[in-house]
Amino acid sequence: MAPSDALHAQLRPVIGAQWINVGLCVSLLSVAFALRHSASPAVWVRSTIILLVSLFMLLCGMKMRRGRRWAYVRATWIAVLGGVLPGPFPAWMRIEQGAQALVFLALANPLPAAGTYSVPGQTWGQAQQCRR
Predict the structure, then answer these.
(1) Of 4, 23, 75, 126, which sits 20 to 30 A from 93 (CA to CA)?
(2) Distance CA 49, CA 45 (A)
(3) Cβ neighbours of residue 15 under 8 Å, at least 6 residues apart?
(4) CA distance 84 to 127
(5) At how many degrees (to 10) do helices 41-65 and 5-34 cross?
């Protein structure tokens, strides 16, 4: 059974926020590249990891549109834990990471509304049909 149109409508802002997140990560890597002579290796490692996580979040968003519950669970956990920035980083990176933390908070808010609580193995579309 295919996911409902209501699910697609609920996930539209989530997918949009995930694309914004990817854009922020690409801009972070661009700034790191522009300042490559003064950027520490920690900046490069953190920037690369964040880009990989944002791409995984985008993949989760695409899977959520197909009704995959595992993608919803993983995206929720990543969104909740995503704003943590330990360690000494330059001010420009902290500003960008603060913006990205706001995107993660924006992602964490609509995810529970878009998800359903279903039995293991059941897709969102099937759960939506059961709830009606």
Answers:
(1) 75
(2) 6
(3) 58, 61, 62, 65
(4) 33
(5) 170
- The percent of the chain in helix, strand and coil, each rounded to the nearest 5, is 75, 0, 25
- Write down the pTM of the prediction: 0.69
How far is Cα 50 from Cα 29, in angstroms, rounded to an integer? 10
d(C-alpha 61, C-alpha 47), whole Å: 21
Here the tokens at position 36 are 């490559």
Q: Long-range contacts made by residues 30-34, C-beta under 8 angstroms, separation at least 24?
A: 31/92, 31/93, 31/96, 32/93
Which pLDDT tens digit goes with each residue over 46-76? 888 888 988 998 888 888 888 777 787 787 7
